Amino acid sequence: MGQITKITAQKRRGRYNIFLDGEYAFPVSETTLVNYQLAKGMTLTPAEEAQIKDSEVVAMGLEIGLNYINHQSRTRHEVKERLAKEDFPEDVIGQILQRLTELGFLNDVEYVQRYLEANSKMGEAGPRMVRHKLEQKGITADLLTEQLATIPSATWTEAAVRAGQKNLRHHQNRAFKDQLQRLRVALIQKGFDEATIAAAIEILDPQPDAESELALLKAEAAKQWRLKQHYEARIRKQKVKSALFRKGFDLDAIDDVLADLAEEN
Predict the structure, then answer these.
(1) How far is CA 55 from the centre of its chain?
(2) Burial of 198 (0-12, 13-18, 19+ CB in 10 A)
(3) CA 97, CA 146: separation in Å to the nearest integer?
(4) For the whole model, what pTM was predicted?
(5) Helices 141-148 and 108-122 meet at what angle, rounded to 10?
(6) Among candidate residues 43, 45, 50, 56, the one with its CA nearest the CA of residue 4
(7) Which of 17, 210, 213, 220 has its CA 20 to 30 A from that of 91?
(8) HSE on the CB side for 135, CA within 13 Å?
(9) Cα 65 from Cα 100, distance rounded (Å)
(10) What is the DSSP letter of 209?
(11) CA-CA distance, 119 to 132, in Å (whole number)?
(12) What is the DSSP secondary structure assignment for residue 4, as one 8-state letter?
């Protein structure tokens, strides 16, 4: 048996020190203090003291979990991993997760729905990428399949168009053929299927600009011509031609530009 002889507030807000029989015994949170109605003069049995300490461990974990969630929305798996890093026992983690769920702070279904809604409105990820990212957050395959099925194909096409617009802007100073290749690769990497990619490209309807294409070709040809100036003339021309072709320029246009360069040099 031990009698509470003093309760003092810590510098950290919401934390208190409990003294039993004149000696410091253990710290508690404000939640634990209130829940057990701890007060000076109260007598605690060893079992009650152990119970309070166990509850305090849960309260500490709950505080950590809440702080983690407050920064941004989290999945059950993410919170579990965060608590595990703090070395909380499995049974304690289970209690904390249950409490956070009861309080409405943890709900994987709502998390997935919010994630999909955000991607549908402003995102650029396809269903495969979305599935992969959410799987990494611990969302179950069944839940993902169920929720992904609620997204209409037109919504995925809109996301692909957003991704495509960004990609085309980023690569606008490349040969048109190279732009199209990079666009397709980017959309595949974003997790869109072939049908969605085809629909998005049809909407984007990228068109070549002959004048800009020729200017790009001339600039790149001049650059490659300088880089390969140490080669013999015939080999130099072949290497420059290969480099330009790999960059997506038309072979006939390449020949014309190289002919002009050869004459100038």
Answers:
(1) 35
(2) middle
(3) 23
(4) 0.79
(5) 40
(6) 43
(7) 17
(8) 10
(9) 8
(10) -
(11) 14
(12) E
Contacts (Cβ under 8 Å, ≥6 apart) of 39: 4, 7
Task: Indicate the length of the chain as a whole number.
Answer: 265
Question: Are the CB atoms for 126 and 187 separated by under 8 Å?
Answer: yes
Q: What is the DSSP letter of 36?
A: T
Distance of alpha carbon 218 from alpha carbon 187, whole angstroms: 29
Residues 24-71 pLDDT 10s: 999 998 888 998 999 999 999 999 999 998 888 998 899 899 999 998
- State how far the Cα of 29 lies from the Cα of 60, in Å rounded to an integer: 8
Query: At residue 149, what is the residue type?
Result: A
Residue type (1 letter), 148: L
Q: In which residue are the tokens 């799987």 written?
A: 135
Q: How many CA atoms lie within 13 A of 246 on its CB side?
A: 7
Inter-CA distances, 234 with 217, 225, 231, 239, 264, Å:
20, 12, 8, 9, 15
Q: Return contacts of 199-206, CB within 8 angstroms, 24+ apart.
A: 199/157, 199/160, 200/157, 200/160, 200/161, 200/163, 200/164, 201/164, 203/157, 203/161, 204/161, 204/164, 204/165, 204/168, 206/168, 206/176, 206/179, 206/180
pLDDT tens, 234-263?
899 999 999 999 999 989 889 888 888 877
